[in-house]
Design a protein that fits this description.
Largest sheet: 14 strands, antiparallel, barrel
Oligomer: single chain
CATH superfamily: Outer membrane protein transport protein (OMPP1/FadL/TodX)
Number of domains: 1
Order of helices and strands: HHHEEEEEEEEEEEEEEEEEEEEHE
Shape: elongated
CATH architecture: Beta Barrel
CATH topology: Porin
Structural class: mainly beta
Number of helices: 4
Strand order of the largest sheet: 1-4-5-7-8-9-10-13-14-17-18-19-20-21
Radius of gyration: 22 Å
Strand content: over 45%
Length: about 425
């Protein structure tokens, strides 16, 4: 299978992408765009101009950066997610540590063209995950494997209208790939061999979006920032297979599925309390309520409902602090609370979405006047939450009729470790 041929056709959709949500932000978002922000739990990002990475969250902060800058680094995400439960109240259905670890790289370049105008280029990702519950998972008929990968390139511009106000905007190019699968459990009424593919689909696409932002320098010590990222519409094209689609003996049917990556917004503040201490805060919103139903259009088999989702809008609240210990060393810390993008009814084995609490520490060290190193460490506590499938939707009822009802609970935690290098030319 070609790597660029795996984007979540009907599968991603099916929702298995969510374990990634538990890796960081809600839904299948990834918040990890820089090690600098990681150290303060990404509090105040749309109002802070640390280095070239600031453009990822608010291009209006670009004019605050000096000269030409390059920032590059990576964040290692290690989720530990467990699922425990039963099928029909008697057969054990457990999966341990089923969300894979990953390294999330990034690259940012900024150039201050004049006192008012600055340009930027960014490479990163907003979405990604890979999970495998295994063919021996007793509730595999609801889904047991999924992967989602996206890469995004931005061209950004920031302009300072007045000493108090700046505006920014950018063009986003998003490329994605993914896959989803569900298989027959050992015990099923159709007497299918364990591991028989019920539904599997993979696909990919690329699309454009945009972002805008603004910043208000209230005075020399206080600043507000606001940013908005547009929805990005993907048409995931690939192929489907599996008896659930009426495809037997490894038959394939080409097709596509529409998937909209939701719009997001952030309101942030930055406050320089004294020469050493700064405080920052953020409120983030994601339009997950647009994610209602996943449907595939297959060339031969026609329209196929993959999964009813019915998500809800998600909010994230973060506060953080930066303390300049000495001229070379700055320390950071932060806490955040990330609300779930699903209610109790719509949580699934393939989307074990739940509330998360972030606890973060970080530091920056000035090696020279032009070269700095950043590090961040975060521990995320995922709230234990119950899961029940079927949820009363037709797409779930079909799976339940085959292999039984699943009831259980998801629990877990995530470690994030980030390193970043910044150079000023």
């Amino acid at each position: 299978m070609k790597t660029n041929k795996k984007l979540l056709s009907l599968a991603i959709v099916s929702g298995l992408i969510t374990p990634s949500a538990m890796v960081s932000a809600a839904g299948f978002q990834l918040a990890e765009y820089s090690a600098t922000g990681l150290g303060r739990a990404y509090a105040g990002e749309a109002a802070i101009a640390d280095n070239a990475s600031t453009q990822w969250r608010n291009p209006a902060m670009l004019p605050y950066l000096e000269g030409t800058q390059i920032s590059t680094g990576a964040i290692y995400a290690n989720p530990n997610i467990d699922l425990t439960g039963q099928v029909d109240g008697s057969k054990s259905a457990n999966a341990h540590d089923f969300a894979d670890a990953a390294v999330i790289p990034n690259l940012y370049i900024s150039h201050r063209y004049s006192d008012a105008l600055a340009l930027g280029f960014a490479l990163g990702t907003n979405y990604g995950m890979e999970t495998n519950l295994g063919s021996d998972f007793a509730a595999s008929h609801f889904g047991n494997e999924a992967s989602v990968k996206t890469m995004e390139a931005n061209l950004n511009l920031g302009y300072k209208l007045t000493p108090e106000w700046s505006l920014g905007g950018g063009l986003r190019y998003v490329q994605g790939e993914g896959s989803f699968g569900a298989s027959a459990p050992k015990n099923n009424i159709a007497a299918l061999p364990q591991g028989t593919k019920l539904k599997y689909m993979e696909g990919d696409d690329n699309a454009f979006g945009w972002q805008v932002g603004t910043a208000w320098q209230i005075n020399s010590d206080h600043r507000l920032g606001f940013t908005y990222k547009s929805e990005v519409k993907l048409k995931l094209e690939g192929y489907a297979t599996g008896v659930g689609f009426g495809l037997f003996n490894d038959q394939r049917d080409n097709g596509s599925m529409d998937l909209a990556l939701p719009a997001t917004a952030e309101l942030a503040s930055y406050h320089q309390i004294n020469d050493k201490l700064a405080l920052h805060a953020s409120v983030n919103w994601t339009d997950w309520s647009s994610f209602e139903k996943l449907e595939a259009q297959l060339n031969t088999k026609g329209s196929q409902t993959v999964k009813e989702e019915h998500w809800k809008d998600n909010y994230r609240f973060a506060i953080g602090a930066t303390y300049q210990l000495d001229p070379k060393l700055a320390l950071r810390s932060g806490v955040a609370y990330d609300t779930s993008a699903v209610d109790d009814k719509n949580r699934t084995t393939t989307i074990p979405e739940t509330d998360r609490t972030w606890l973060s520490l970080g530091a920056s060290y000035e090696v020279t006047k032009k070269f700095t190193l950043d590090a961040g460490l975060t521990y995320i506590i995922a709230k234990d939450a119950s899961i029940k499938e079927s949820r009363g939707y037709a797409s779930d009822d079909t799976a339940q009729a085959l292999g039984g009802e699943f009831t259980g609970e998801v629990s877990g935690n995530i470690w994030l470790v980030g390193l970043q290098a910044n150079y000023l030319f």
